[in-house]
Each structure stands twice: as structure tokens, then as C-alpha cells.
Amino acid sequence: MVKLRLKRCGRKQRAIYRIVAIDVRARREGRDLRKVGFYDPIKNQIYLNVPAILYFLEKGAQPTGTVHDILKKAGVFTELHLNQQTKLN
């Protein structure tokens, strides 16, 4: 199973997180399938590769709690819902 979760980068006391698609059994800094964005909590910056995120969500990837909040704030789930509606019609 694939999850969208945060991978810690940066230096001591200056954490920056990559949002990655990763196998559930891998550790936090383990090998990821694909980097799909980053999140800087200090500067409150977010960059998302929305097409890649939508691809993994459509394939059944589950976001963790924090990543879910980030994606919800960015409006990714509304876009996912719209994509599913257009595929049904």
C-alpha cells in the first residue's frame, strides 16, 4: 500500500518536509516512489505537484493526517472530486 507522507529534510532545528509517495513498510527517511511536493512549516510555504498527487490518490494512496490537512487547505480534494465526476459522465 502506498501513502502520501512527510519526509524530514533540512538541518537541526530548521526542518523542511518533502511530501512523498512511499510504501507503508518503509521508514520515514526511506526510499520514496516519487517526490510530490514540499512543506516548510517555519516560512509556511507549500509547493505541490498536483497532477502527481491526483495520480496517486486515484490509484488508492492514503495521505497521513498532516498531509491530508495540507492537501485539503490547497484544495486538492475538490479537484480530485471534479476529476471523478468528469470521468463518470
TrEMBL record:
It holds the Pfam family Ribosomal_S16. It is found in: Plastid, Chloroplast. Keywords: Chloroplast, Plastid, Ribonucleoprotein, Ribosomal protein. One of its GO terms (cellular component) is chloroplast. GO terms for biological process: mitochondrial translation. It comes from the Eukaryota. InterPro entries: Ribosomal_bS16, Ribosomal_bS16_CS, Ribosomal_bS16_dom_sf. GO terms for molecular function: structural constituent of ribosome. Belongs to the bacterial ribosomal protein bS16 family. This is 30S ribosomal protein S16, chloroplastic. The gene is rps16.
